[in-house]
Amino acid sequence: MSLAYTPDTVYAPRQAHVIVVGNQKGGAGKSTVAMHIIVALMRMGRRTGVIDLDVRQRSLTRYIENRSRFISGQSAKLASPQILELHESRDRSLDAAEAADESGFHAALRRLSETCDFIVIDSPGGDSYLARTAHAWADTLVTPLNDSFVDFDLLGDIDPNCPEIVRPSIYSEMVWESRKKKALAVRTPIDWVVLRNRTSASRIEAKNKQRVGAALKTLSSRIGFRLAPGLSERVIYRELFPQGLTMLDLDTEGAAGEMKMGHLAARQELRDLFITLKLPGLEGEPLKF
């Protein structure tokens, strides 16, 4: 099943709210976080589209393909989003390639904006023109971060002799440039939310978790992001991938499974995350998951 999209050249209108899930390091759980945000939005009755820019790994695309197969095979009453894959230009001219990437991205936004209330974009790891373009169009930027100083280095450099932040790092600077670019283009801000992902309840990890939390709190006020409640490390997230399911689907006809205490705790973590995002048009609306 091919989900590739060949764009036209029409500039995208500003209609749907754009959520970019971005992190320059791999292994932070971007696609899993993105998929749970997508399903949460659909459970809330919002028309949701997806752009997968991570065309090498295609984790989010495969997640949604698995979901479509599960729905078809099990006759499950589950919603599935509209998804577009956007490939980077192979033009040898850098200027021509960047122009093609930007035009294609705008066209994909335009296409989804015609039918969607929200567009969720899975941005690739690493630094690319297409990733920077996506960040500059974000209304909400969600950055999952593994709960360790190895991943903290993505946001800021720590003085090894004391727990002080020396300076913002490369990704933080890229977000800053994206904010300036968006402010000049459409005069609206980017709401940046950093999510502590795969947190551990182990007592051994407690001290490190506390130190990471304190450093993130300090850095958040310095470079301007909000902290979201963390999602715990759970095997269930990986187990649901082959079916294309999320923790929010397990009470749905055709996908219902045994709900254990850990599953209930995970769903509450996802509710807390969704509330923290403060997405437009959802304020005060009861959660439907």
What does this protein structure show overall?
It is built from nine helices and nine strands. It has helices spanning 30-43, 59-74, 94-113, 129-136, 149-152, 170-186, 206-223, 235-240, 261-277, and strands spanning 17-21, 48-52, 82-85, 118-122, 140-146, 156-158, 165-168, 191-199, 226-232. Helix 1 (30-43) crosses helix 2 (59-74) and helix 3 (94-113) runs parallel beside helix 4 (129-136). The chain is globular, with a radius of gyration of 19 Å. Residues 1-13 have low confidence and may be disordered.
Main sheet: strands, sense, barrel:
7 strands, parallel
Q: Count the helices. How many?
A: 9
Strand content: 15-25%
What's the CATH superfamily, by name?
P-loop containing nucleotide triphosphate hydrolases
- Mean model confidence by pLDDT: 85
Q: What best-fitting shape do the alpha-carbon axes yield?
A: globular
Helix content: 40-55%
**Cα distance, first to last residue?**
30 Å
The number of domains is 1
The assigned structural class equals alpha/beta
- How is the largest sheet built, in terms of strand order? 3-2-4-1-5-8-9
Rg, rounded, reads 19 Å
The CATH architecture designation is: 3-Layer(aba) Sandwich
